[in-house]
Amino acid sequence: MTMAAHGDSGAEELARLLDARNEHPESLAEIDAQIWQSFGRTQAVLVLDMCGFSRLTMRHGIIHFLAMIRRMGLLARPVVAEAGGRVVKAEADNLFAVFDDVAHAVTAARNVQARLAVANSFLPDDWDLHASIGIGFGPTLLVGESDLFGPEMNIASKLGEDIAGPGEILLSSAAREAFSGRDAEFDEARYEVSGLDLRAFKLRTSS
Fold first, then answer.
1. Could you tell me the pTM of the whole model?
2. Which of 41, 115, 120 is nearest to 78 (CA)?
3. In DSSP terms, which residues pair with 137 in a beta bridge?
4. Sign of the alpha-carbon dihedral angle for 11, 14, 18, 24
5. Res. 183 pLDDT band, cuts 50 70 90
6. Are residues 44 and 102 in contact, defined by beta-carbon separation less than 8 angstroms?
7. Buried/exposed code over 81-99 (b: 16+ C-beta within 10 A; e: otherwise)
8. pLDDT > 50? residue 1
């Protein structure tokens, strides 16, 4: 079995395997195993969502918000890299990054929020950047350099996009269990989103 290639070739290889899966239902287990061997990794997944899209777009127009997305990316990407992570993709006002462990993802999330606070101190209120962040941990399909899939990625997206408020960092149950850092405290809560009952852990901010 071949390991996943980089770039478009990875996506092409996954498409080929998925086509084979659709055409040969008698070989599902074998093909699924090949997909996981080629693309699967156990990762911490960080999903960042910018806050205030509708309000700012209605007030200032889409170009203003696109410029804010650009500023957010320029600020967040080096922070992710400094913490040992990699930004896999950006979609609209969301950023998706992966890390080898949860502690590094939490470090990146904290540092992103801290740098946003510093940047906002120099900006007019309507130019402020605010982000909500969700973190998951578990088996993830990393396809080339530009896409990822997995249940913990989906949960991290729910936490970051639908549940967390501005400045908040939420961990999934799996991410909290895998977190090895000793310099953090969490508040546990349950949320219902899209019919899912999610148990999440909000990182406490220092006073």
1. 0.90
2. 115
3. 44
4. positive
5. confident
6. yes
7. eebebebbebeebbbbbbb
8. no
Phi, psi of 190, rounded to the nearest 5 degrees: -115, 140
Q: Which residues of 53-77 are buried (b: 16+ CB within 10 A; e: fewer)?
A: eeebeeeeeeeebeebbebbbebbb
- Give the whole-angstrom CA distance, residue 44 versus residue 76: 17
* Cα dihedral across residues 193, 194, 198, 201: positive or negative: negative
Q: How far is CA 103 from CA 56, 110, 142, 171, 181, in A?
A: 33, 11, 20, 11, 6
List the one residue out of 110, 114, 108 whose CA is nearest residue 79: 108
Q: 3-class DSSP state for residue 108? A: helix
Q: Where are the beta strands (DSSP E) in the chain?
A: 40-50, 86-91, 94-99, 131-143, 147-149, 169-172, 186-193, 196-203
pLDDT of residue 192: 84
Residue type, 11: A
The pair of three-digit structure tokens given for residue 108, joined into one six-digit string: 């990146």
Give the pLDDT score at 98: 98
Task: Report CA torsion sign: 116, 117, 123, 125.
Answer: positive
Parallel, antiparallel, or unpaired for β 131-143 and 169-172?
parallel
Partner residues linked to 171 by β-bridges: 135, 201
